[in-house]
Amino acid sequence: RSVSAAFWEHLRRLGLQDFPCGLGSWNKSRFDAHASPCRGRPGLEAAPSGQEEAMLLSEESPGALVELLRDPHSPWALPPGCSPQDQHLLETAVLAPKLVHGSRIFQLLRSLRIIGKGVEEVDEGLLQFPRLEKLILSTNRISTITSANLPRTLKVGQVLELCCNAVADLQDLCAQPPPGLQHLGLGYNRLCGSAQDKYLTADFWPNLVSLDLSYNSLTDLQALVSQLSSLQKLRILVLQGNPLALIPTYRGFLVDSLPKLCVLDDIQIGPDERHQFHGLATQPEMIRSEARVVVSIGEMKGIPDPSAHQVDSEAPVITYSYCVTYEF
């Protein structure tokens, strides 16, 4: 399933052409050939009083139609949890329905948020969004992202969020990466090994300010830091949940190695912490590529007591062996 398919299905569910949106008997006179020159504006202001007076008695005013969308008790109100983007589209469909008809809708959207829709493919349909600045595709089934299908006419400040997918390789994404990207979210994916580190440099992401790599399977802290150090604009980094975060000197090494970093794993880096770990980046021997985990067993039930089966001291000794498996 592609992003485009999920997008059009979502639009159908919104009902942009149905009452109180779209064109119909409830607002037809506002958009006919003799309508005011102000018709078609995407703004959310109510129609001029003179225009409202000229409307047919069977029609509703723009303000009344918008209120049907905003009132939580209205049968046409959006259900809880809908995005501001959905609200904006519906209100635009009331005030300027022609702007959300067909391909014109691509000109309106600066943010596209498709979460938990089973999307597997980032298709070339995204190239129809010339003003897109934020693309959020979290909690889907995306394993690869073809960068050629991402709009390149994007303003600085673009966000690409791919949290909770199945991304294991960044090669296709980095073939033609969006040059203005400021936030890249790859948390809860399948990135592993040092083979992906080479794609996390300024050669691919020169404007990156925020990077989320949490809860993957990254293990080589030194190799990763050597690549991240080229990201001169990086200020926010999230690496928690990776095996490398278990290294005892993990935080100190990162704080000293990336002096421009402001926030690490959602914790702000202060001057005292900078001073505390000063010089640690020049001591790679302090980084151990191993971690110790201590497991404490509070109570175990259902294990037979061997002493209960002993009849006397001359009876054969019975030995029991048990295997306990821990899954991390």
TrEMBL record:
Pfam families assigned to the protein according to its UniProt record, in alphabetical order: LRR_4 (PF12799)
Keyword line: Leucine-rich repeat, Repeat
One GO CC annotation: cytoplasm
Domain of life: Eukaryota
Xref: PANTHER family: LEUCINE-RICH REPEAT-CONTAINING PROTEIN 51 (PTHR15454:SF19), NISCHARIN RELATED (PTHR15454)
Record-given protein name: Leucine-rich repeat-containing protein 43
